[in-house]
Write a structure and sequence with these properties.
binds coenzyme A, single chain, alpha/beta
């Protein structure tokens, strides 16, 4: 049974994340989407909300489950018996940060392998903060996020 962890803060989950999760779900028997508490990032959406969005957006993928975590990534990966971490790589600017994180995680637990999936061109520039920024000025994020997230962003920034 090949099980992989797709981690992130997912504040909120975007179609770029869903592209990575969908591709990974075709390569592994089981995918756990790990939603990090990431309190230091002061997320716009609560952990419960971010988990709920990820669950709704991945409901059609039979081998994908979503779990929150508030721990080191390698500890969570061990807890759920996943020895592969899958992350998206959007542009060269992601590389240095991801290289550093991968090296740190490898030092903590060399049994956990990190794999990267290149984002397709339409999602190369996409990030959760870009989505939050567009929404905060009431711009459309229709093609960038799943419907449940679009609705929640509209409600949040109408307040
Ligand atoms: N599509 C769209 N956006 C993407 C993306 C994709 N395919 N891949 C990355 N992004 C975006 C994210 O939305 C995020 O955007 P934001 O900064 O605007 O919110 C940004 O790129 C960074 O993504 P990522 O590197 O995955 O960071 P993250 O905050 O989403 O998640 C964790 C990082 C949770 C994986 C990391 O903090 C972690 O492992 N935390 C646990 C504690 C730990 O072990 N720390 C490391 C010790 S060495």
């Amino acid at each position: 049974m090949k099980k992989a962890l797709v981690p992130g803060t997912f504040d909120p989950i975007t179609n770029g994340h869903l592209d990575v999760i969908g591709r990974a779900s075709q390569m592994f028997d089981e995918i756990v989407v790990g939603v990090a508490a990431s309190a230091k990032k002061k997320p716009l959406f609560s952990l419960d909300e971010r988990v709920a969005f990820a669950r709704e957006a991945t409901a059609s993928l039979g081998n994908v489950t979503v779990q929150p975590f508030d721990d080191l990534l390698v500890h969570f990966a061990a807890d759920i018996n996943a020895n592969v971490v899958v992350k998206g790589l959007r542009a060269i600017t992601d590389f240095e940060y991801e290289f550093q994180m991968t090296a740190a995680n490898y030092r903590l637990n060399s049994d956990v392998e990190t794999m990267f999936i290149m984002s397709p061109p339409q999602y190369m520039y996409l990030s959760s903060s870009i989505v939050r920024e567009i929404s905060s000025f009431h711009g459309s994020v229709e093609d960038l996020v799943p419907a449940c997230v679009e609705k929640a962003l509209k409600a949040r920034f109408a307040e």
